[in-house]
Amino acid sequence: VLPTIASRVACFSSRLKKKQPKTFKVKVITMDAEMEFSCEVKWKGKDLFDLVCRTVGLRETWFFGLRYTVKDTYAWLKQEKRVLDQEVPKDSPITFHFLAKFFPEKVEEELVQEITQHLFFLQVKKQILDEEIFCSPEASVLLASYAVQAKYGDYDPNFHKPGFLAQDELLPKRVLMQYQMTADMWEEKITAWYAEHRGIARDEAEMEYLKIAQDLEMYGVSYFAITQNKRDTDLLLGVDAQGLHIYSPNSKLSPNKSFPWSGIRNISYSEKEFTIKPLDKKKDVFKFYSSQLRVNKLILQLCIGNHDLFMRRRKVDSIEVQQMKAQAKEEKARKKMERQILAREKQMREEAERAKEEMERRLFQLQDEARLANEALLRSEETADLLAEKAQIAEEEAKLLAHKAAEAEQERQRLEVTAMKTKEEKRLMEQKMREAEQLAVKLVEQSERRLKEADHLKQDLTEAKDAERRAKQKLLEITKTTYPLIAAYSTPPAPPEAADLGYESASTRLDFKDSDMKRLSMEIERERLEYMEKSKHLQDQLKELKSEIESLKLEEQQQQAGLYGLQSEARGYVQEPVYIPHSNVCVMTADDLLFLITAIIIIIKINNLFNLVNTKACRLKLHQLSEPDRADI
């Protein structure tokens, strides 16, 4: 029965082993990639670590490790133990971070491979941006400029326009909040430094970044909270490539006490107690306490690794490291040569492109010049045709102007002749006007003389009327006194017929006087009518003379204007009419001449009237006088 049971148990156990999976999945996150692997259950940490290093192409494996998270802290995967036997997460896949576990003292001497430099560059850059490493604003801007050089290459203002860094995280948030500056202002500062890094390759820019970063106080330091006794937690332990440092909780930059690796004899821990024994036995042993046993294990692991690297740096490099350095040196020389060749080719290409652009510009310029020359030729041909047409038109205009000039010359000669005639007529008219003025003066003098004579005649007429009246009275008196006496003494009495006859003779004498007066009135009326006809005829003549003078003046002005217009047209241009003032000759207007003639007519009328009155008065006076007086007269 017992063998049967044993055989059954063995069979069941073999079945269980067959059902268990032989592999598990692992996810490894580097600084620039994520990788997944299928690992065997029996794999140790070294197997997985070597697989990741081969995949990445890393040979400087002693700086790196696989880190995983355990509760509220982290731990490094141990290489001598199986992966699943360690306190790794039970997730699937299991996540590890491939990071630098130890940092070199001098990056330029210890980091050989380019991939090693790149991974360190990415990790240190992330620690600075996450403020795990304190960095001043000035150093942050300088480091950002090298990071931009490593990412974008040489600065090209034609390609790198303002705002090309807007999507990149280059400065810590603490630096951005410390100054009241906009993103454009920060970009301007970074670009100013970035422009000075021209010609630096990507690996060189990353190395310059690490050389600046390794001088920072918190570079490569792992901090742990510790206490000097079991009750207080007021200290920090820092582990780096130089040794162990004790810090105050509020100051991670300057340590209160340091233990360099060269001065440490032994490091050990017992549960939560950690002991540092100096090499100098006279110095006191430094003890401190951590919160967890796992933290003490991690501190010890970091101390052992950093101490081994410290001692390794003081020894001669191994053959592998020497080969790596030689290969790296050859690789750097080759890359430097390639960069020089590339720079020379780039320079030649740029020169060729500039020459090409210059030739294209010159070609475009020549094409433009040819186009402009063709256009100028076409314009010159058009201008030549136009000038030919203008010459023909000018020739025709010259002929027309010559013809007009001949006509103008003829018209000028005609106008000169007309002007000479006009001057002669004007001279005659002026002579007539002067004669009329002289006549008017004479008439005025004669009218004055006639007025004086008229006054004398009026006086004589008044005296004649008084003498006539007195004569009539005297005649009546004589007739009344003498006629009866004569009839009585000298003649016999007359018969009635004789008396009637005497009466009739007196009546006849009186009737004779009345007929003379009527005849005189008729003569005066007839002479008045003749005078009016003559005056009307004279007025008509004066109007004709006035109109003739006006027409002569108008014709003279038109002739002068026409003469100057023809002369101007003969010269080839039109000139405004020019007013030519008359000579200083006393020229009377038509109104003045009409007034003068009217005055002459009035004077003539007055003269005739006085002559008529004088004649009638003389006649009347002769009729009224007696025969002896009339005979005496």
Automatic annotation (TrEMBL):
Signal peptide range: none
Cellular component aspect of the GO annotation: plasma membrane
Main subcellular location: membrane
Annotated positions binding a 1,2-diacyl-sn-glycero-3-phospho-(1D-myo-inositol): K78, Q79, E80, K81, K297
SMART domains: B41, FERM_C
PROSITE patterns in alphabetical order: FERM_2, FERM_3
Coiled coil: 325-474, 528-562
Key words, A-Z: Cell membrane, Coiled coil, Membrane, Transmembrane, Transmembrane helix
Gene3D superfamilies associated with the record: 1.20.5.450, 1.20.80.10, 6.10.360.10, Phosphatidylinositol 3-kinase Catalytic Subunit, Chain A, domain 1, Pleckstrin-homology domain (PH domain)/Phosphotyrosine-binding domain (PTB)
Subcellular location(s) per record: Cell membrane
GO molecular function, one term: actin binding
InterPro entries: Band_41_domain, ERM, ERM_C_dom, ERM_FERM_C, ERM_helical, Ez/rad/moesin-like, FERM/acyl-CoA-bd_prot_sf, FERM_2
Domain FERM stretches: 24-314
CDD domains the record matches: FERM_B-lobe, FERM_C_ERM
Entry's transmembrane regions: 593-613
Membrane topology category: Peripheral membrane protein
Record flagged with keyword Cell membrane: yes
Listed name of the protein: NF2, moesin-ezrin-radixin like (MERLIN) tumor suppressor b
